[in-house]
Amino acid sequence: MKYFWLILLAMGLALDVGMLACTSNGDGASDSDSDSDSDSDSDSDSDSDSDSDSDSDTDSDSDTDSDSDTDSDSDTDTDVPTGCDLATPMDTAGTFVDSNLATPDEIDYYSITLAAGDFVQIFTDIHDGDGTPELLDPVITLWNEDGTTLLATADDQIPRQDMDSELIYRAPAAGTYCVAIEGWENWSGQSAGTTTDWNYGMAALLMDPSQAGWTAGLLNPEAETNDTIAAANTMTMAAGTGNATFGRAYGDLGGATDVDVFTYTLPSAAVATSIGFYKPFGAGSSGVQGHGSTLTDGMVTLTDMSGNVISTLDVSFDGTYWTGINTPPDANIPLPGGTQVAVHFEGGTGWTPGANDFYVLEIMNQTSDNTGEVETNNTAGTASTTTFAANTSGGYSGFVMGAIDPAATDVDYWSFSAVAGEEIALACGAASNGSGLVGATFAIHNASDTLLQTETESGYDTILWSSVTGASMAAITVTASATYYLVISATSQSAAMSANHYRCGIHRSP
Ligand SMILES: [Ca+2]
Ligand SMILES: [Ca+2]
Ligand SMILES: [Ca+2]
Ligand SMILES: [Ca+2]
Predict the structure, then answer these.
(1) How far is the CA of 218 from the centre of ligand 2 (A)?
(2) In sequence order, what DSSP letters do the residues of 375-442 get, joined into one string?
(3) CB within 8 Å of 446: residues ≥ 6 apart
(4) How far is the CA of 385 from the centre of ligand 3 (A)?
């Protein structure tokens, strides 16, 4: 896509984990360059970091392959839009194909062979290191062998890092599958321009822990039967920066009663765990727009090892959580280091079994978190203090978290200073962060403790006061340099789970 999202965040923690996956891209066929260029790894640490725009970090992959090869060598693919019947075979071992589109409307076709149940990650790398601006915004589409049935479409990663695309697919049956690469303009039917230097790299990597190229510990495929805590699959985890750990749990639902349970232990330095849906559902969709998974609704339940429910998220992948991004909510649960927990995945409310109900969960154990509250802070005079740091948008961001305990009684005040003329944007979540708080209300008061603006969380909708598209309310522009208060309360606590936290990011723009 051609635009960037401005995402204001409720979490300020820097996860520092190189999430994504395969480190390899392996020095592919084409050239010597060893580019094990990061591309995938590293980048998604993203969405946590403080600032506003998650897309900011175009990080890493850039380094890419030193290779100066202007790709001439490997342009072996068909290079003509003849379709899947003339696709160039490629492996699923991560061997990098380095090629280009010769004309704006060209589509390159490749074929891969998969066994039934195989998960594969297909990804592009437009940073080929030749020193010229890379203008191709690649779209990956996946087809059946003869190109008659569209199985999945992937544009950008979500959250967006750059223009590269990435797709995870589970093969429901053994066979040959056809992968097409083309420019976004061509795919979307827009003017394709006149650029001819549309280089790209792309690879396919089987999501098998024994497959070289993956970060050790990252991949945790399910192994049935895993329907109970006693029979759960024990996750390995990959090591992140600063003792953080992360891993992917993935599988498919084999019928209406299937539950897949994975267990893991937070490292001793951890202070929180985060469970989110991987990009197959990042576009808020099932089917072709959801990487080809037919799963429409998924429910994640986090329990202790005795089965006591800490948190539940029951989401529709076709839901809209805010129109700017449509990403299903993540559970971001404060938990002590060393805690052992179980994640239960099953179909969500409204789901009926489909032909290929696969899922990928991303789990991160974090060693830093938003600033915690100090009770008692139920009045303006006893407010907890918000700490701000400069953000990448030229303003300041402060991230806070706390619990409303007991609900309907506890009130949390957070104080902060703002300068006349500053715009105050707010991003908050309780239920949308996996909390059982019902009717969580977020308000800004002025120095006289007079209400300026308030909003109550509904379902998993994001509280977002901002000028960005899809915001729930407008940001506030303050007219006096003074102390202000963020005030949080809740109607009640869900009896179905114990988590009672909230998180907020306050973003001040001069
Ligand atoms: Ca299963
Ligand atoms: Ca199962
Ligand atoms: Ca509190
Ligand atoms: Ca309080």
Answers:
(1) 20
(2) S---SGGGPEEPPEEE-TTSSEEEEEEEE-SSTTT--EEEEEEE-TT-EEEEEEESGGGT--EES-EE
(3) 452, 478, 480, 482, 484, 485
(4) 13
Neighbours of ion ligand 4 (CB under 5 A): 377-378, 410, 412
The string of pLDDT tens digits covering residues 196-236 is 567 888 999 999 999 999 999 999 999 999 999 999 999 99
Instruction: Return the ligand number nearest the Cα of 261.
Output: 2
CB 327 within 8 A of CB 249: no
Question: How far away, in angstroms, is 263 Cα from ligand 3 center?
Answer: 30
CA angle 363-367-373, nearest 5°? 110
Calpha distance 151→141 (Å, rounded): 8
Sign of CA dihedral 13, 17, 21, 27: positive
Give me the half-sphere count of Cα atoms (radius 13 Å) on the Cβ side of residue 11: 28
Calculate how far, in angstroms, residue 485's C-alpha sits from the geometric centre of ligand 3.
14
pLDDT of residue 105: 81
**Distance from residue 403's CA to the centre of ligand 3 (Å):** 4
